[in-house]
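Dear H.,

Thanks for agreeing to be a second pair of eyes. The structure we're designing against is below in token form, covering all 319 positions.
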């Protein structure tokens, strides 16, 4: 399953394709691949990994077994690899989220087969309640897919270009686009702000306040998200601006109360065994036809005041 992302501007990262043929010093995604690859000289000889030696592409059909119940997450290291078993993961996340696709690779690198990209798009279409954010340093691949009528157009598909120097940015009518300017340099001060819907500004390596100010002065109405880092905070010396486009806005969740604090909950003392709790939420009472409500399993420490523990489908929420 996907885990909550530590990247501020997204909720989750999803990596059905990993690896890259560039070696950018600022790429944290590649650092993760190399850290968790283990001894891939040994792994690459495994029959579990399908190989195209001529193109240097790999396919891992299922999680690679490690010691005991553990798995090796990236047995191919930084080599371009397709993980088809990860495609259903977004559909398993039923709560809407902003998902950064292929943080640990470049899905739109020239070396990636179009078939892989199409399979990722198809998986996204099966979970249309999420927003999908793609980011590449090769925006020309977007243009090629658009010419071939293969670039999906939808309100929840966002195509990003990562800029580390003055270069082309993907924009097209009817397609949502954004830029991530990191590492920033003198080019950020002089470049023409592209007609995108969102700007991410990051602080890696060298950073000057005037570069940031130049973008802020010329951005117009485009939302800007300053990616938090010690360097950025030090150089900016003010509260960071972290804005989202309207379509990517996510309301913050309210902290769920303990069941003992929920207005629908009541409890009874059971001698030395502790307290017995039950929920009298109207939905519980109406379905069970029991005015005493439903017993709250002691394993669930926190419940929602709107959805109490009901082990039926996905109508119950716990935290």
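And this is the sequence the design step returned. I haven't edited it by hand at all.
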């Amino acid at each position: 399953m996907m885990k909550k992302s530590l990247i501020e501007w997204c909720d989750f990262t999803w990596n059905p394709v990993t690896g890259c043929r560039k070696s950018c010093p600022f790429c944290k995604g590649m650092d993760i691949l190399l850290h968790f690859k283990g001894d891939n000289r040994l792994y690459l000889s495994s029959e579990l990994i399908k190989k195209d030696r001529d193109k240097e592409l790999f396919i891992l059909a299922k999680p690679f077994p490690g010691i005991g119940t553990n798995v090796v997450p990236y047995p191919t290291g930084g080599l371009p690899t397709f993980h088809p078993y990860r495609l259903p993961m977004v559909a398993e996340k039923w709560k809407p989220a902003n998902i950064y696709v292929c943080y640990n690779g470049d899905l739109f690198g020239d070396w990636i087969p179009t078939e892989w990209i199409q399979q990722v798009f198809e998986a996204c279409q099966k979970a249309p309640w999420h927003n999908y954010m793609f980011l590449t340093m090769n925006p020309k691949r977007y243009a090629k897919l658009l010419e071939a009528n293969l670039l999906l157009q939808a309100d929840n598909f966002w195509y990003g270009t990562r800029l580390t120097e003055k270069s082309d940015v993907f924009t097209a009518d009817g397609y949502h686009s954004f830029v991530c300017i990191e590492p920033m340099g003198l080019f950020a001060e002089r470049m023409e702000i592209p007609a995108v819907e969102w700007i991410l500004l990051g602080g890696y390596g060298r950073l000057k306040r005037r570069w940031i100010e130049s973008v802020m002065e010329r951005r117009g109405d485009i939302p800007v998200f300053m990616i938090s880092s010690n360097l950025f905070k030090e150089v900016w010396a003010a509260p960071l601006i972290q804005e989202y486009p309207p379509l990517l806005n996510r309301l913050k969740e309210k902290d769920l109360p303990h069941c003992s604090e929920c207005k629908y909950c009541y409890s009874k003392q059971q001698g030395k065994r502790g307290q017995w709790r039950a929920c009298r939420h109207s939905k519980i009472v109406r379905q069970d036809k029991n005015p005493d409500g439903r017993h709250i399993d002691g394993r669930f420490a926190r419940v929602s005041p709107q959805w109490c523990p009901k082990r039926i489908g996905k109508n119950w929420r716990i935290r």
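Two observations from my side: The longest strand covers residues 157-163. Confidence is low (pLDDT under 50) at residues 299-319.

Warmly,
E.
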